[in-house]
Amino acid sequence: MSPTRIRYRLAGVAVATLAVAAVTPVVPVSAAPSATVSPGTVAPGGRVSLNVEGCGTKTGRATSRAFGAVSLTPGSLQATTNLFGEATVYTDAPTGAHPVTFECGGTGGRRITVTLQVAPGAARGGLGGSVDSMSTGQVALGGTLAAGALGAGVWILRRRTARTG
Predict the structure, then answer these.
(1) pTM surpassing 0.90?
(2) C-alpha distances in Å from residue 70, one per residue of 67, 78, 132
(3) In this predicted model, what pLDDT tens digit does every residue of 48-100 receive, in sequence order?
(4) What are the φ/ψ torsions at residue 29 (nearest 5 degrees)?
(5) Is the per-residue pLDDT at 142 higher than 60?
(6) Which of 103, 6, 16, 87 is closest to 47 using CA atoms?
(7) pLDDT, the chain, mean
(8) Cα dihedral value 141, 142, 146, 151, nearest 10
(9) Which of 4, 15, 95, 121 has its CA at 20 to 30 Å from residue 127's CA atom?
(10) Residue 104 or residue 20, greater confidence
(11) DSSP assignment of 57-105, as one string?
(12) Would you give the distance in Å from CA 22 to the centre of its chain?
């Protein structure tokens, strides 16, 4: 076979390949959705943020025995990749691992399940539980130091005023 004939055959195969590629519809490969619950460990009565990425829909929901069913929505009207929601864990939720099932779209949509840990103890509020670990002596010492600093400030300001007047 001559080199010119080989070139024509190769060109014909290339043209046929391009023609087939041009008429073949492009089907996007969609990855499986991924989901997160934050924080991953929470006390009964605490709040968690729910996020699922890769749904390709504008609606979804998350369900768990720890908090029931929650609707998930996109962060903006144009977004369809991330869906968000928040839930409050039941105050009487049993401690341990609780599956959280994320469902894209609606019933029958793609699903992914992650685990939420419910830890023993009550949800802390107010000062975030920072006062819980302080003894009476520590509170008294802190109050004394604050009062001393305030007194020293007043004394310095009064001395400055007395000198200038």
Answers:
(1) no
(2) 8, 21, 32
(3) 999 998 888 888 899 999 999 999 888 776 666 788 999 999 999 999 999 99
(4) -90, 115
(5) yes
(6) 87
(7) 77
(8) 0
(9) 95
(10) 104
(11) SS-EEEEETTTEEEEEEESSSS--SEEEEEEE--TTPPSEEEEEEEEES
(12) 41
Residue 38 CA to residue 47 CA, distance in Å, equals 9
Would you call 130 helix, strand, or coil by DSSP? coil
Look up residue 162 and give its two tokens. Answer: 């007395």
Q: Which of 64, 32, 31, 35 is nearest to 50 (CA)?
A: 35
Structural Rg of the chain based on CA atoms: 32
Beta bridge partners of 38: 49
Q: How many CB atoms lie within 10 A of CB 88?
A: 17
Long-range pairs for 30-35 at CB < 8 Å and ≥24 separation? 30/54, 30/56, 32/110, 32/112, 33/102, 33/104, 33/110, 33/112, 34/112, 35/62, 35/100, 35/102, 35/112, 35/113, 35/114
Q: Per the structure block, which two tokens stand in for 136?
A: 């009476």
Q: Which helix (H) or strand (E) holds 117?
A: strand 111-118
69 close to 62: Cβ distance less than 8 angstroms: yes
Locus of tokens 């009565």: 45
- Contact between 132 and 121 under an 8 Å Cβ cutoff? The reply is no
Q: Could you give the CA distance from residue 119 to residue 89 in angstroms, rounded to a whole number?
A: 11
